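Journal club prep — side note

Before the paper discussion, L.F. wants everyone to see what a predicted structure for a comparable chain looks like in C-alpha cell form. Sequence:
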Amino acid sequence: MKEKAQRGTLKKVLRYIKKYRAFVGLSVLLAAVTVAGTLYIPILTGQAVDLIIGPGQVDFGGILSLLLRAGVVMGVSALSQWVMNLCNNHVTYRVVRDIRNEAFRKLQALPLSYIDSHPTGEVVSRVIADVDQFADGLLMGFTQLFSGVITILGTLLFMLSVNVAITLVVVFITPVSLLAAAFIAKRTYAMFHLQSRVRGEQTGFIEEMIEGQRVVQAFGQEKAAQEKFGEINARLESCSLRAIFFSSITNPSTRFVNSLVYTGVGVAGALSVIGGGLTVGKLSCFLSYANQYTKPFNEISGVVTELQNALACAGRVFALIEEPPQAPEPPDARVLGEAQGRVGAQHVYFSYRPRQPLIEDFHLQVEPGQRVAIVGPTGCGKTTIINLLMRFYDVDRGAITVDGEDIRHITRGSLRKNYGMVLQDTWLKRGTIAENIAYGKPDASREEVIEAAKAAHAHSFIKRLPKGYDTPIGEGAENLSQGQKQLLCIARVMLSLPPMLILDEATSSIDTRTESRIQRAFQKMMKGRTSFIVAHRLSTIRDADVILVMRDGHIIEQGSHAGLLQKGGFYAELYNSQFERT
C-alpha cells in the first residue's frame, strides 16, 4: 500500500516536471558531457604513467601534451556541470512554484468545512515546510541522480574497453550495493512521512500558542503548554531518529561495497600486470575507475533517502491539492445583480456532522429593508444561519432564496457581493489602514475611504496614528486595539454599502459611548437594506423589525421586541436575565 502511494506520488511529480522536459533533457546531456570528461581523465593519467618508464626514460613532451589535453577536458567538464546545475535549479524551483501556486489556489477553492476541521498551522506546514523539504530532495535528485547513473554506465563502458575480465569482477560485486539501497529505501519512506506529519502538528501547536499567548498566561497554562509541546517534540524526536538512523546507514554500507570493489580490482589487476596482460598505467586507470564507479552508488543511496523524504512531503501537499473543492457552480448559475433584499428559507435542514442534527425544518421570510435580529443561547445555530445565508456551507435539505431564487443557482461571488458582513472576530490584512478599509472596494478614492471611516467613528483614532491612513498594519494588526480593529471592519462595510447586511456581534469589542454612536451609524446604514443582526446584548436590537429566537436549531419565538416581552416566553426570560445580572 505504501509502495503504491509512493509510486502514485512519483507519477504526480513527473507530471509537473514534464512541463520542463527541455531543461531536463539538456541537464541529462550536460551530465553525460561532465561524466565523459571526468572518465576521460583517468585514461590520460594512465597514459602519462606509461610514459614514465624509468630514470632518464621520461617522455616530457608526451606528458605535457597529455596535461594540456587534461586541462581542456577539465574546463569543459566544469562548464558543463555549472550549466547543468543552472538547469536543475530552474526545473526544481519552477516545479516547486507551480505546486505551491496550485496548493494556494486550492486553499481559495476549498469549502469552509475543510478550513474549520484542519489546524491552520498544519495547513501552513504543508504549503511551506513540506514544499521546501520536497524542493531540497528534488534538487539533490536532479543534481546527483543523473550524474550518478551516467557515471556508472560510462565507467562500465570505459572499463570494458580496457579489460573485460576485471570489469566482470566489478559487476558481480555491484548487486550488494543495490540490495543495501533497496533495504534502506523501503524503510525510510514511512518514517519520513510520519516525521513530516508530526512536524505539521508541531507547527500548528506553536502557531496556536503564539496566537493565544495572552490567554495561556492569563490562565496560568504555561506549564501545560510546555508539557504538550514536549510530548509532540518527543514524538518528533522519536520518528526523526528512526528515519535518520536508516538513512545514516547508507554511507557505511555503500562504503563497504566500495572497498570490496576496490579490493577486487586491485587484486585482479595486480595478477594481470604480473602476467603481462595489463600495464601499470592501465591498472592505475582501472583503480581510478573502481573509485569513480562505486562513488555514485554512495551518492545515489543518499539521494534515494532524500527522495523518500521528498516524496513523503510531496504526498502531503498533493493530498491537500486533491481535496475535493467546494461544490462547483451549476452551468446555468445566474449572476445576481443589485438584490432587492427579499430573503427566504423553506424547510431548511443542516448539520456539520451527519449524526448531529443542528438546523431542522427552519423557515424564514424577510422582506426588503427589514431588520432581522437573531438571538438565542450559545450553540443554538445563530452563526450557522449566517454561514448558510452566505453559502459558506450549503443546506442539506430545503432551500434558501434571495429575491425568490435558490441561492444554489446563483454564483457565490455575486451573492456575497450583495452582502456586507461585520463579524465578532476581526480580520485585517497586512497593508495600510486605507487599504484595509478599501478591501471590498479597491478603486475607492481617498475621500470615500475617509467618509466611511467617519461614518464608523474610526476617523479620530486613525488621525492620531503616526501616518494616518497610510499607517502600515503588521501581521495580526498588533499595533491596534481590538475595538479599533472592529471599527476598521465596520468602516470597510460602510464604504461598499451592499443591499444586504450581516452584523454578527459587530460592536462586541467597542466601549459603550462609541457603541451608541455606531448604533446610530448602523441605523442610517441599515435604512432601506435587509439586515441580519446576531446579538447577545439584547438591548442593541430593540428596534429590529423581527426578532428570531432560536433554540437547538429551531425558531421557537418570533416577533417584535415589545411583543415578545409581552408574551413572557423564552426571549423575555433572556432579556430580563441580562438586566438582573447588571
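L.F.'s comment for the group: The chain has two domains: 2-321, 343-581. Keep this in mind when we get to the figures.
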